[in-house]
Amino acid sequence: QVQLVESGGGLVQPGGSLNLSCTASGFNFNRLRMSWYRRAPGKERELVAHISRDSERLIYADYVKGRFTISRDNGRNTVYLQMNSVKPEDTAVYYCNVVVYSFDYYGQGTQVTVSS
What we know:
About 0% of the residues lie in helices and about 55% in strands.
């Protein structure tokens, strides 16, 4: 059974930093691409970043490029999202994602609120 558990969200001031984590189980973590998505209030879920299984290929949405960094530790079955220079528009629920045999899986999400 695929399980994704996100953590690390919270309240942060504009310009601050947060580090999100997602621990995975139930599939062969080191063979699959992992992703972070987010859903802001009243908006559709949108891609934040992808990371290939070997961390060689990283893809970022334009609105987080240069501020967020995705990484993974295959030995710990964990993917991370380092968020720097956060803005109020980064406020959203952040979800970890994996596609296993053509099925999309998401965790329960972790809330990130950027406010002074």
